[in-house]
């Protein structure tokens, strides 16, 4: 079939082009009688019952406008018959209602997973492969010198140094603003609480608390919703997808940076259950992308450009990996953990040179943050604040006995179960938001409602639970309120958890002395903060889930520690080490929600500064991950699945060796000739959504004429050529004023073909594609197995892989979505291969 089609000339935009080379499935043709009816014998009547689905029933009910007939019952004589018929009527009515409820639950269960069993077609891939066209070869010949290579190598390290410095400056600024403004806010609320507890005007502090929360939170939500929606959440799922090779417009822009940094300050000051550590990874990535491009795009099309030598997806991806690691390092003071986080959780392509550069940027970010925050605190030479969140050095060494390992394992199982519950509830809430809360003003209002509810619940717990203590908090700057405590030096222990930022709450749970927080207070805090964390994550605000997860785990871990101490009253040394149970609980909860092990272990060890406690932390993280994975995926993976991102795993899905490249490729295939009319190019870009088009040429020296593959040209290249009007009338010389620098100036390109104005006369002009297409694209034969195609595609970071037949004629194209639609899923310990659908939304 391929040879027969090869004789025909492909026509662009029609059904007679190269797409006819694709193998079409065989089908059976059924015939029916002409009259459409089959005569049946009159006496032997057969009835065929056709099953009707629930959806067809509902559609019929909606279209049926007939008046509803009243239900009538035949009344028989006798009291027994009346009772019997009444019972039957009630039973039938209850059965009908039960079936309706069961049908709705079943339908919800069938429809909800569609958000995770699909890929969205709008997501495109990044171009990691170098386009070795004529323009690239000319520029490479100009820079064939050791000096140029050395300067380029030094330039990369300088940019990584600047990424670390920029991330440190941002982290210190956010820390200073949040801590100072939050302290003023909670001091105001505390004064009103203490005063009104005596005067009987407690409605005043709660109204002030709610008003501050709702104003600040709605301001941050409006900034994120209307300025750049990609700044919502922690940003780590987006960064993870970007480093995996998915192109996300608007993710690394100046608008996203403003919305992210200002939004996270508003979220924390608004009293939401979130932290600023997750957004720091996104903010560091934006700084890295801006420094890598050497250009900052402001509003109204204005920009500031300094250099352009690294404006390609391959270089920017490496810088963004360093920016994400720097953000984590500056947040937790963990340079090694930040590097491992970028390697384990994010990047899909790695090498040794990149590891050193990323670690260098992380170290600079950690040291810079330490110096700046220490300077703000008044002692710059001590360098006592290496990160935004430090668990601080525990007063006593974190020692553990082997007899405590079973307790730690039990806590890991609990952490995995609670983490899985957190993910499941947040998934249900995310689906509900996408269905019903998808308008911008509703998103802003929802954020305000959550902030009001947070203040109301915190106030209710402070007033309702009179947990008084005379112990001094571990933080001497902590805000404490007496409220209803009458004794000398007494204060409400819950005030150290609610009249502070989430980071201060976490430190209080880790370091406050034994007996400071009672069991009732801890149980109430865990229940409330857990559901508030579920509700908060996914709002249209800039927020992170690291700190809420750690605080929840630290609270119930401290509760477990109190239980162990009460079970062993003679072990007085355990009262000193109650904080270690809070640390183990925090690790279990975080591992159960995020499901990362190596990087989290290193981050927690670096935050505590005690390497001897690394073994139990590693054990509980692994067990909590296994327990959580047995039920559902991690939180970030769930977000990626709901967004429909075409993520490529590290390995090819198992049991796919029998699939060939011809089974998974996209077809029909649309192609161009080396010289093509502007009309054909414009109409093809307008009608089709493909981002790569093979360039073919007929070999007139053979009989019959064969088609030869000449190269591959990308959509953004054609858009730039049309925008620059690089075409001419037939027979004339085409303009040659486009250089490789012009493509870098338009990077990243989000131009649409409808934005390009071309006259009717220019539609008949010709464009010579030879200087611009890649003459050496990667190709595979149709008999290649899926594992080999997957390894080649992912290992080289490809965007397009052309499939050819045995005569080197292109018959299809393998893209990221063709490989990502085969996903490995596991539930309740059973591994299965899922085939995802590709949808528009």
Describe what this molecule looks like in 3D.
Pfam families: CBS (PF00571), Voltage_CLC (PF00654). Keywords: CBS domain, Chloride, Ion transport, Membrane, Repeat, Transmembrane, Transmembrane helix, Transport. Its main location: membrane. This protein has 841 residues and is mainly α. It is 54% helix and 8% strand. It contains 29 helices and 17 strands. Strand 12 (779-781), helix 28 and strand 13 form a beta-alpha-beta unit. Mean pLDDT is 81; it is low at 1-52, 60-79 and 107-113.
Work out the number of β strands: 17
Task: Return residue spans where pLDDT drops below 50 for at least 5 consecutive residues.
Answer: 1-52, 60-79, 107-113
Question: Could you estimate the helical fraction of the residues in percent?
Answer: 40-55%
Distance N terminus to C terminus? 36 Å
Q: Count of helical segments?
A: 29
Rg, rounded, reads 32 Å
Strand content: 5-15%
Largest sheet: 3 strands, mixed
The structure class reads mainly alpha
| Tertiary shape | elongated
Adjacency order of strands in the biggest sheet: 12-13-14
Mean pLDDT: 81
Overview in brief:
With 841 residues, the protein is mainly alpha-helical. The protein has 29 helices and 17 strands. It is 54% helix and 8% strand.
Features:
8% strand; 841 residues; disordered N terminus; two-stranded parallel sheet; 17 strands; single chain
Task: Break the fold down into its secondary structure elements and pairings.
Layout: H1 2-6, H2 54-63, H3 79-111, E1 118-120, E2 124-125, H4 134-142, H5 146-199, H6 203-227, H7 236-244, E3 246-247, H8 254-269, H9 277-293, E4 295-297, E5 303-305, H10 313-332, H11 335-346, H12 352-376, H13 405-436, H14 440-464, E6 468-469, E7 491-492, H15 495-498, H16 502-511, H17 519-536, H18 546-567, H19 573-576, H20 578-594, H21 598-608, H22 614-631, H23 635-643, H24 661-664, E8 675-677, H25 678-687, E9 692-699, E10 706-714, H26 715-723, H27 740-745, E11 766-768, E12 779-781, H28 786-796, E13 801-804, E14 810-814, H29 816-820, E15 822-827, E16 830-835, E17 837-839
Parallel strand pairs: 1-17, 12-13
Antiparallel strand pairs: 2-3, 4-5, 6-7, 8-11, 9-10, 13-14, 15-16
Helix pairs in contact: 5-6, 5-8, 5-9, 5-10, 5-12, 6-8, 6-14, 7-23, 8-9, 9-10, 10-11, 10-12, 11-12, 11-21, 13-17, 13-20, 13-22, 13-23, 14-17, 16-18, 17-18, 18-20, 20-22, 21-22, 25-26
